[in-house]
Amino acid sequence: MTQEFKGKAFRIYDADSPNHPSRIFGGKASGIRSWDDIKYPIFLTYQKNLFGEFWIPEEIQMGKDMEEFRQKLNKNEQIVYAYNSGALDWLDSIATDIVGLLFLATSDPSLRTLWVLVAGFETMHNVSYEHITSSTLNKDEKDKAFNEVRNLPLLVKRNMFIIEKLEKMKDALVNFLITKYKTGKEEMDDETLQAVFEGLVAYQILEGLFFSGSFVYYHSLARDNKMQETNNIINMIKADENQHSEVFGTVIQILMSEFPQLNTSENLEFAMDFIREAVKLEKAWTAWLYQDIDTLSIVEYHDYVEYLANLICRNAGMTEPFPENDELKAKWIVTYGSKKNNNGGISPKADFLQGNAIDYKHEDGGNFDL
Ligand SMILES: [Fe+2]
Ligand SMILES: [Fe+2]
């Protein structure tokens, strides 16, 4: 028996819809990107900004760090370096898939273009952790660290807290696509929208809190004159993640305005509670991880975690979960956690979210035969 399906799960071209997209989820659009006629021009700005930050991990030298890893780092510092690299690689693997899935679900083609680009950067970050660890660790050490992070109880607890929400969003979106295919129903129902909202809050924690937090360890080594090249790569990644955090903060704001039924005090309360719990889990994990590390003060780091939580909420247009902690106290995180400027010095930043001045220059391809 053949079953008849009434719709399409994904359209590459919709002859009956205008080029101008109607909504980010469950809307209509032809699929043609007419950049003068997109609904949210900021998506084009983000796209240009992301392209402007393009870089290639292998073009950043690691020769000095190769020696420093064994000469300058003590055993504890080496272990934390390996664990942090493995933990970041884990999250970047998830990030690639989540953004790819969102690509299939959005009905705004200009957002699809932006998300393709974001997913490309996540893949590049993935490769860069390989570049970092294959330069500093031998294969056994690297494999061991990348597998062991999957069994560190406090890290697993922290990651599963967001992975569960991301899985729920994934299931809801897959179900939405199947329903669209079977019934032809294009609109997204409230239950799916709720799962998307909660999933995006979890994703913001991944981008703006768990990523950015782990980067601080490498900044602290650089402050101690160790592993500067790794920190250079980390700062390239960090600038990208900051952009992604802005992108997803904007998407959450658009979601709220296009679907006011999500813009409730219950959802705000959910977000605040969820983010505060994520902060608690991050503090518990890092209190253990950094217990024998001298380059970093755990108290100072935990203060920074609260500051980051406020920042992701500001990006998403929400109130701050830690209003008493509204200022970055550890200024050295900006000094060692920003890309360098063209004069080779560290660029001063009023706000560490903005990091456009760089000394990295991508090769122009002149050495390649085409
Ligand atoms: Fe990433
Ligand atoms: Fe990202």
Give me the secondary-structure topology.
Blueprint: H1 42-52, H2 63-71, H3 75-105, H4 109-136, H5 139-148, H6 153-183, H7 190-223, H8 228-258, H9 265-289, H10 298-315, H11 332-336
Bound molecules: fe (ii) ion (2 copies).
Structure description:
The chain is 63% helix and 0% strand. By secondary structure, it is an all-alpha fold. It has a single domain (37-52, 60-336), classed as Ribonucleotide Reductase, subunit A (Orthogonal Bundle). Helix 3 (75-105) packs antiparallel against helix 4 (109-136), helix 3 (75-105) packs across helix 5 and helix 9 (265-289) runs antiparallel to helix 10. The longest helix has 34 residues, at 190-223. The protein is globular. The structure holds fe (ii) ion (2 copies). One fe (ii) ion binds at residues 92, 95, 122, 125, 237, 241.
Poorly predicted segments: 341-359, 365-370
Count every beta strand, where a strand is a DSSP E run of 2 or more residues.
Answer: 0
CATH architecture: Orthogonal Bundle
CATH class: Mainly Alpha
Q: Report the total helices.
A: 11
How would a crystallographer describe the biggest sheet? none
Characterize the overall form: globular
> Ligands in the structure?
fe (ii) ion
Structural class of the helix and strand makeup? mainly alpha
Compute the separation of the termini in Å.
53 Å
In what range is the share of β-strand residues? under 5%
Tell me the radius of gyration.
21 Å
Which series of helices and strands comes N to C? HHHHHHHHHHH
Mean pLDDT: 90
**How many independent structural domains?**
1
Percent of residues in helices? 55-70%
CATH superfamily: Ribonucleotide Reductase, subunit A
CATH topology: Ribonucleotide Reductase, subunit A
